Fold this sequence. Notes:
Aldehyde dehydrogenase family protein; 14 helices; six-stranded mixed β-sheet; Ald_DH_CS_GLU; Aldehyde Dehydrogenase, Chain A, domain 2; alpha/beta; 21% strand
Amino acid sequence: MQEILRNYINGGWETGATTGLSENPSDLATPVAEYARADARQAQQAVLAAHDAAASWALSTPQRRADALDFVGSEILARKDELGALLAREEGKPLAEATAEAARAGNIFKFFAGEALRITGDKVASVRPDIDVDVTREPVGVVAIIAPWNFPLAIPAWKIAPALAYGNAVVFKPAELVPACGWALAEILSRAGLPAGVFNLLNGSGRQVGQALIEHPLVDAITFTGSETVGAQVRQQVASRGVKVQLEMGGKNPLVVLGDADLDRAVECAVQGAFFSTGQRCTASSRLVVERTVYDGFVSRMRDRMKQLKVGPALARGTDIGPVASKPQLEQNQSYLEIGRAEGAELVAGGRLVECETAGHYMSPALLLGAPEHRTAREEIFGPVATVLKADSYEHALALANDTPYGLCAGICTTSLKRASHFKRHAQAGMVMVNLPTAGVDYHVPFGGRKGSSHGPREQGRYAAEFYTTVKTAYTCA
């Protein structure tokens, strides 16, 4: 291991109150890194530094912000193989997926480098004579970013890049499972020419560092991605202060397979959507709603396809499914299989703990045949576990797809343009996929859901401006 990875506060690298060890879920005998864990006092320092730097950064030129973000994006893309290997070791994502995520992070920074030069406003004719009206966007101020562990480069990128592009100062707290990925991103940002205090990194616990950021009176906006439980707590805590908040809180995403679907394509959509990235995606299709006429054939083909999937170390050649990210997550996955059996669901494939050449958190993807009321069909498991539900018709399938407290993604496999168009209009989700896996989105368009999945403005693309800026209307008398 290298030296202890430090926090980045007010333009300098700082030790922490304690240290932690980043685990390699593919090989528990070889940890990834030792890192400094910040505390509430250092969170206070970082917020004060961001507050002091925010005013001048807000008035910086669009070109300066664009140049900084372009530098970050270019370096990430140039080092995508190296960063992908780090991500694979620390989070457990197979190398090809990890490298693709690193490239996505680089492209996000490049995209928002361009957006920094395209911040627009409006000049509107007043309803009164001799008055001009200007509508402009200004930065919010200090943005606290609390990111999850499952996409440790891409999700921080799609939060940090727009925050900086629109002139905000940032305090970034990665998840404790992935401190090395957060540090690697911060190290690049530390060399991007940003003034001291504009960007800050705090590795540490949610209870100390995360809570300190949520409670701090100088934090103007909070963007959080994580569980619905924690997201609801964040929303409740900041409501009385009027802090701007953006929450992404997971999903229980349906993939509908109709009787006219190309079954081979539908199975591939289901396998990729449900099991790739070890099912650890908020967009994973963990509810497979299949029309009765093709139900048996779909399940049979799923079982055959799942036998071909190779579970193994993230860096190993040929690995399709890497390890679960942590022991607690693995235990939760296994507990849901027991819950499913107790409720009457049938485990027809996978779900076993797997032994590999190195000790790690391995399990084979699991397929359950269940009912709509089963917890495995309603609650987000966040692992390689999918439940198949039987639908009597398209209308029944649509009703089952919408029968969830979440509303992030919904997918449909069909050859009917009529059904596809109807589903796109009536699926109660923020994102809809037709003949595609529910997991897998572009970086230049909005990301977000409905119901219990999301709260606040959308992330990514030009819609990010809605969260990271505030609108000002100015009147001038000629």
